[in-house]
Amino acid sequence: MNWWLVVGVAGLLLVSIGLTWTRWAKATIWLLRRHAGYVRHTIGVDGFELVYHESGKRDAPPMVLLHGFAGDGDNWVRFVPYLREHYRLLVPDLPGFGDTGYLPNQSYSLLRQIARLKDFMDMLHLERVHLCGNSMGGYIAAGFAAAHPERVATLALFNAAGVDMTVRSPFYNAALAGENLLLTRKPADFDQILRLVYHKRPFVPGFLRDYLVDRAMAAADDQDLIFHEIFGERIWLDEHLPAISAPTLILWGDDDRVLDISSIKLFQAGVPHAQVAIIPACGHVPMLEKPLSTARVYKRFVEEAMQSKADTSTKQPALA
After folding, report:
1. Does position 7 have pLDDT exceeding 60, yes or no?
2. CA torsion, points 268, 235, 151, 65, in degrees to nearest 10?
3. Alpha helices per DSSP H over 271-319
């Protein structure tokens, strides 16, 4: 049975006994986080009270997951359950987004977000991590891996920003015309965003949709400022990509209307050793739309990369 249908039916039952729709929406998010094993933490980073969730095994290899523009750590909540048995997962709400929130008079440029990610890792004593990012999070992850290659064990870019595209997407064309299709200014915008980022628009119960719409509308002005700063810089990664030395996975949904799949060729030109994986019948957020398929590909990539490194390190030099 569809997960959201179950949530909707349960919501109707709970509302009938007095629980408000807002409280049930918050309870639904709590249930999703609980299923992912999320434990909420905060840490001071560059003036922000940065919120992050941790899941998995404390003594396992650390894995950091970075969400995209207008998202938050809940973008990974359906993906994390498939990895938590083998990794220590750290999922921040990046500065400017989610519960970490926006602070005026702060910079949200690529370089500042990379610096904050390094501070976050330093404060948690994470010397080397498996780093994965989606969309804007992929932009930050790739920039970090180029700037600090010694800190990245593997790199995964899911429908990542940071390079141009040979085929312009609907989102890209709208952005050139001055319209940001990822902002929710009115309730109808939320439905348009779902159609834009998913191959098949998911069913979202009305009570949860209304709650998410209210949050997105409240953040729209701040996120518009962030968007124009981070993507208005025109700092493409092309010239920095060759500095990435970590084993790299470039993963894309085959029906991305935000960042066209043609971007893959430009990432490959800069990171020639990268592997490529395509998730069929999938849009811009594969970890949400196809979490199991995406997790299987990613988990196999990380395991094979680590096995290859172990095999290389155990080889003995030839005798003279």
Report:
1. no
2. -80
3. 286-289, 291-314
Residue 99: how many CA atoms within 13 Å on its side-chain side? 13
**pLDDT mean over 147-174:** 94
In the structure, what pLDDT confidence band is assigned to residue 159 with cuts at 50, 70 and 90?
very high
Reply yes or no on whether the pLDDT at 2 is more than 80: no
CA 109 from chain centre, in angstroms, equals: 17
CA 46/CA 97 separation, integer angstroms: 15
Distance CA 36, CA 33 (A): 5
Amino acid at 33: R
Q: How far is CA 108 from CA 30, 74, 100, 113, 311, in A?
A: 28, 20, 13, 6, 41
Residue pLDDT, tens place only, 36-55? 999 999 999 999 999 999 99
Token pair 């109707």 is at which residue?
12
Cα separation, 301 vs 247, in Å, equals 9
CA distance 109 to 149: 20
**CA dist., res. 171 & res. 186, Å (int):** 18
- Condensed to tens digits (0 to 9), the pLDDT of residues 178-211 reads 889 999 999 999 999 999 999 999 989 888 999 9
pLDDT at position 24, please? 83
- Residues, the chain: 320
Query: Please, are residues 306 and 292 in contact by the beta-carbon 8 Å criterion?
Result: no
**Spatial CB neighbours of 143, under 8 Å, sequence gap ≥ 6:** 110, 111, 114, 162, 237, 240
Catalogue all structural domains in the chain, each as residue range(s) with its CATH number.
Answer: 15-306 (3.40.50.1820)
First and final CA of the chain: distance in angstroms? 65
Q: How far apart are CA 132 and CA 50, in angstroms?
A: 18
